[in-house]
Amino acid sequence: MIRESRYFFFGDRKSTDMGIENVNTEGGLVEETFLATSSINETTIKGNDTPFYEGKKRDPKQFNLNFYIVDYWNDKRLADIKRWLDVDTYQPLSFSENLDIVYYAMPVDTNDLVHNASKEGYVRLTMRCDSPYAYSRSITTPLYDASKEDITIEINNKGECTIVPSFKIQKIGKGDVQIENLSNFSSPSKFVDLDDGEIIAVTGEKEIVDSSKYGDERYDNFNEEYLQLGYGMNRIRVTGRCKILFNYRFKYR
Fold first, then answer.
1. Architecture of the domain whose range is 139-252
2. Number of CB atoms found within 10 A of residue 58's CB
3. Where does the Phage tail-like C-terminal domain lie (predicted)?
4. CA distance 105 to 63
5. Sequence-separated (6 or more) residues with CB below 8 Å from residue 81
6. Would you give the distance in Å from CA 132 to the centre of its chain?
7. CA–CA separation, 218 vs 120, rounded Å?
8. What is the three-state SS of the chain?
9. Is it true that 8-136 and 139-252 share their CATH fold?
């Protein structure tokens, strides 16, 4: 929970190391952002009062960040804080109540310094994220060995959303590799005619395929079905002689 946290990390720095602490500036019950705002894409046709639903658009998550400047402040302290927070790219942001959940955010819109004559006060910022979601820390599995027989791997998605993991295949002998999620009905990911010793790296969320021997010229050998992991336990069958590891982040609404 953001409001209940005493401190936070932004980028690679801890807020208390900067002499500031997270605060709730509102009395009474604490308010938190529950879901990112969203809208419905739909088309209305003349003569039909019921619009055609075309999907849902989720906006990047946005929330307020308020922090107290411990003790009095001067121009140098404020300059240090500004340099830390005024970034041009999204930075990891996590809060002390659960440091394993990470937002990727930067300050936008409203930002105010509220203080008294003794130079004591707090800052109010609006933080905008790069997506509607927060994420776990990156998780990398062990290197699984399917060089002698097919194997089945269990991956427990402890987040709140379906995720598209990345994975790396090291081919043993020339041939095909297939990766299938037995826990859902999606099509398997399949590579054909890989070379002995070739390493294929698949970046799931960005849909990038890279080969250690052929660079980005392996899409013709791939059926372009990217592995998906639904919420809960996923049983992944790996067919074809290879070694394989997975990398992923849980996703939270």
1. Sandwich (2.60)
2. 14
3. 133-248
4. 10
5. 18, 20, 69, 123
6. 9
7. 60
8. CCCCCCCEEECCEEHHHHCEEECCCCCCCCCCCCCCCEEEEEECCCCCCCCEEEEEEECCCEEEEEEEECCCCCHHHHHHHHHHHCCCCCEEEEECCEEEEEEEEEEEEEEEEEECCCCCEEEEEEEEECCCCEEECCEECCCEEECCCCEEEEEEECCCCCECCEEEEEECCCEEEEEEECCCCCCCEEEEEECCCCEEEEECCCCEEEECCCECCCHHHECCCCCCECCEEEEEEEECCEEEEEEECCEEC
9. no
* Residue 39 pLDDT grade (very low, low, confident, very high; cuts 50, 70, 90): confident
**Sorting pLDDT into bands at 50, 70 and 90, what band is 56?**
confident
Domain locations in the chain as residue ranges: 8-136, 139-252
Q: Does domain 8-136 have CATH number 2.40.30.200?
A: yes
Residue type, 224: E
Q: What is the mean pLDDT of the chain?
A: 91
In whole angstroms, how large is the CA radius of gyration of the chain?
Answer: 24
Q: Which residues contact 38 (CB under 8 A, 6 or more apart)?
A: 56, 57, 58, 59, 132
Residues 183, 177 contacting (CB under 8 angstroms): no
Total residues found in the chain within this entry: 253
pTM: 0.84
Beta bridge partners of 107: 127
Task: For residue 64, give every residue at least 6 positions away whose Cβ sits within 8 Å of its Cβ, in sequence order, or none.
Answer: 110, 124, 125, 126, 127
